[in-house]
Structures are given as C-alpha cells and as structure tokens.
Amino acid sequence: MANLATSFTLWLSLLSYSYINxxxxxxxxxxxxxxxFKVQTMRMTKLCNTNEIVAVNNMFPxxxxxxxxxxxxxxKVTNAxxxxxxxxx
Length: 89
Ligand SMILES: *[C@@H]1O[C@H](CO)[C@@H](O)[C@H](O)[C@H]1NC(C)=O
Known about the structure:
Layout: H1 2-25, E1 32-46, E2 49-56, E3 72-79
Parallel strand pairs: 1-3
Antiparallel strand pairs: 1-2
The chain binds 2-acetamido-2-deoxy-beta-D-glucopyranose.
C-alpha cells in the first residue's frame, strides 16, 4: 500500500511539474509575439503530380501563430513569390 501511495505521489508531482512547465512555456497575455513570414513558391508532389505552390516559410498550410487574448502580434511578411498575394487569418 505504501508503494502505491508513493508512486501516486510521484505521479502527481510529475504531473504538476509538467503542468507548471507547460504553463511556463505558454506566454501570458498582453505580450508581443513576433513572427516572420517568407512567402515563396515551392514544388510539392502529391499523388505523383508535382505542382508549384505558394507557401509560407516552406510550409503548406502555413505556420501557426500562437497568441492569447490581449497579445499583440507583429508579423513581418516578405513576399518572395512572383505573385501579388494577400494573407487571410
Ligand atoms: C501587382 O500589383 C501591382 C499594383 O497593383 C501591379 O502593378 C503589378 O502588375 C502586379 N503584379 C503582378 C505579378 O500581378
């Protein structure tokens, strides 16, 4: 029984440790988050077809912006594609 209680306590402290750790990595509100987006074309092969697509930071779909309510988000966008583009979010 003591073993069970000890392992439960250990499990609980590990759980709280990871929770606190996760909270430390998640930014608090009212902070400013900076992102850099480079819009460029890249070749993508899907079902044996290769096409040129417009991607952000070589990712399609583009990168995720993490923010909380009241955060300020600044995104520096560089359009290195041959097209005029607009970004919607
Ligand atoms: C992009 O937009 C500008 C301003 O409207 C226009 O002059 C230019 O021809 C456009 N370029 C392309 C590649 O569509």
